[in-house]
Structure formats: structure tokens, C-alpha cells
């Protein structure tokens, strides 16, 4: 359940700027996603940790990928291979919308 909630939060942050087009309540989701953007690095690190702890499911893979994108700026502080993780996160950022959409859908399906 916690992994599903983190997946939904990560998906919303990754879809900031696009989620506002959802009819009826998109404006409110957009405001919430912008507010969550202030915690982007924290959400990214938590997503990576939960993804590693629950490794083996689609949700865990998406949490790790979304976490790498969200925490790209924080990952450089890891000794030895942090700069490589940051480069990977920045490269994955090019697919941010696709990753965010899949992560959001997987998170919602995990709650059902």
C-alpha cells in the first residue's frame, strides 16, 4: 500500500504541467503536483528505497526508475558512482511523461 501511494505521488510530480488537462479536477491535481514538486528529491529517494526493498514487481521497477528521475540532482552526492546515477537519471528525464504516466497508473492499480 505504501509503495502504491509513493508511486502515485511520484507519477503526479513527473506529470506536472500535463496533469492540468484532466477534465473537472485537473486544475486541483496540477496545484497539488506543483506543491509536491518542492519535495521532488525526497520523493525520489523514498521511491528508490521502497523500490529496492520490494524488488521484483512492476511497481518496484517503476518506483526505481521514477526515483532516479526525481532524485537526479541528489544522486551526485553518493560516493564513487553517484555521478553515473545522476547521468542515468538525467537521461531518463527525457522520458519523464511516459515514466510518470506508467508510474501513476501502476500506483492506482496497486491501490485497487
Write the layout of secondary structure elements.
Blueprint (H helix, E strand, L loop, with lengths): L1 H13 L11 H11 L3 H14 L4 H13 L11 H11 L3 H16 L1
Helix pairs in contact: 1-2, 1-3, 1-4, 1-6, 3-4, 4-5, 4-6
Organism: Methanonatronarchaeum thermophilum
Keywords: Membrane, Transmembrane, Transmembrane helix
Protein name: Putative membrane protein
Mind explaining what this structure looks like?
The chain is globular. The longest helix is centred in the last third of the chain and has 16 residues. The protein is mainly alpha-helical and 112 residues long. The protein has one domain. The protein contains six helices and no strands. Helix 1 crosses helix 2, helix 1 packs across helix 4 and helix 4 packs across helix 5. The relative contact order is 0.22. Keywords: Membrane, Transmembrane, Transmembrane helix. This is Putative membrane protein.
What level of helicity do the residues show?
55-70%
What string gives the helices and strands in order? HHHHHH
Number of helices: 6
Rg is: 13 Å
Secondary-structure-based class equals mainly alpha
Unreliable segments of 5+ consecutive residues? none
First-last Cα distance:
10 Å
Shape: globular
Give the averaged pLDDT, no decimals: 88
Characterize the biggest β-sheet: none
Key words describing this protein structure:
112 residues, mainly alpha, Putative membrane protein
Give a quick rundown of the structure:
This protein is mainly alpha-helical and 112 residues long. Helix content is 70%, strand content 0%.
Amino acid at each position: 500500500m505504501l509503495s502504491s501511494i509513493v508511486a502515485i505521488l511520484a507519477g503526479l510530480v513527473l506529470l506536472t504541467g500535463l496533469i492540468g488537462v484532466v477534465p473537472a479536477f485537473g486544475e486541483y491535481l496540477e496545484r497539488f503536483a506543483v506543491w509536491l514538486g518542492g519535495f521532488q528529491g525526497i520523493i525520489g529517494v523514498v521511491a528508490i528505497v521502497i523500490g529496492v526493498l520490494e524488488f521484483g514487481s512492476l511497481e518496484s521497477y517503476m518506483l526505481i526508475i521514477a526515483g532516479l528521475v526525481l532524485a537526479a540532482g541528489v544522486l551526485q552526492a553518493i560516493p564513487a558512482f553517484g555521478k553515473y546515477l545522476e547521468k542515468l537519471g538525467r537521461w531518463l528525464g527525457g522520458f519523464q511523461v511516459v515514466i510518470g504516466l506508467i508510474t501513476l497508473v501502476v500506483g492506482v492499480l496497486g491501490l485497487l
